[in-house]
Glutamyl-tRNA(Gln) amidotransferase subunit B, mitochondrial
Amino acid sequence: MFRTTCLSNIKRFPLKRWASTQARPALIAGKTRTWEVIVGLEVHAQINSRSKLFSVTPTSFNEPVNTKYSAFDAAFPGTLPRVNEECILLAVKTILALSGRVQKQSSFERKHYFYPDIPAGYQITQHSNPIGLGGYIELGELDGLPYPLKIGLEQLQLEQDTGKSIHDIQPGASLIDLNRAGTGLMEIVTLPDMRTSLEAGLMVRKLQALLRAVGSSDGNMEEGSMRCDVNVSIHEPGTPFGTRCELKNLGSVKVLMSAIDVEVQRQIEILESGGTVYQETRGYDAVQNQTFKLRSKETAPDYRYMPEPDLPVLQVTDQYIEQAKQQMPELPDVRRSRLIDTYNLSLENCNTLMAEPGIAEYFEQISKKHDPHKTLSWVTSELFGRLSFKGISFSQNPVTQEQLGSIIGGIEEGIISGKIGKSILNLMMDGDSRNALDIAKAKGWQQIEDENALEKLCSELIQKNPEEIQKVKQGNKRVFGWFVGQIMKETKGKANPALVNSILKKHLDY
Ligand code: ADP
Ligand code: MG
């Protein structure tokens, strides 16, 4: 049964400062009729555990082929599965982070496929009695405006990943790499709660951020550690949902969104010309921008599900769930609200700080000692500008939080000017590991605080420019700025600008 999740949640929307709410997109107009789109996702996220789901073989993400598998992973007769507790803990944490229910008892079953990359001929999964039920993800925002839509979840189940078939190395043959075989997956199934490609894209991004924060998966679609199957159907408003097609092998959020859009158009054309949409699994060709049939949809009987006889019921106690709760890191939505409230940040700035792991921690460490707004600008404009100029990500940032803090502190204390601070940051970007004050001292870049010396420079300048003085006295701000600029130029940016200002003001009666 379809469950409505949307607009009643507005009241509970957490970010107080957001002014207005974005409307949910309208229906799609075809040539002759209007359609509502239904999207549901089945996400497979590889579990970030050290070893595989049912064997002690280390998980391998970039190893030479066929170097990381055990007799069990290769389905040798007589080998038996044994649950890896680390996978259970990560799954339990993920369910809690998704506000789902952890089932005290869940069970495993065999789902049969005959593919060369599944050596056993079946996958151990949890189709009918999974470890996690329910839960939701709140989309939160769209283009900086509130979008308080909750996408409901049906379940989270544990299952094995397959090996990989490689078709493009040896002509006429498919090669099998078993490194991935038996790696733990969390399959997260959503309710059919999304209505547009944009909502589906946002949902995937939010889920990725959540999995990364929990540490249960890298959630990387490009590298295949997260794979999303998308179910799409259309119907006329007020009528039952239409027949869905499942889109597979979508390598990025962008591709996923394009595939939904073009599939919706295909279904509209079929239905408007009197045809029938058949339930099938389809691929997406990004070059042609069209979906194509892979196979008709398997139904449950095709899989010949049977209970897994070699694994007992999986029991999770209240105490275990409590322990998992205690170990939970701060989740993205909670962190976003907290950062906005604590530091009075705009949503946009906050999102910048949360764009990559570690940035928010870096910002907060520096902000403990220095002004948060100055820190924000040093991190998001000065530091990020230089990182992007070098084409590196924050994870490769060579400037420690102590170093950047020492620049901001040096400016706060009047020891260096802002301009010198930027030159110091350039040196740090190039690998200088000293703090700002040591660099300034070594380079002779400390700010000139000597009032007598500055007095002298100012009076010389004033004597040489009698005409300009008249303009300042008539209230010309720009010319006053010119005087300040001259002194800064003469001292190579080292004069304390506040001091120069006050000396000039005194001399010019400004
Ligand atoms: P099955 O178990 O047969 O694969 P489910 O009912 O569990 O089918 O649904 C699988 C996925 O398809 C879920 O993500 C769900 O949200 C989605 N879905 C179900 N019905 C529709 C529909 N009419 N249109 C689009 N997606 C749908
Ligand atoms: Mg199902």
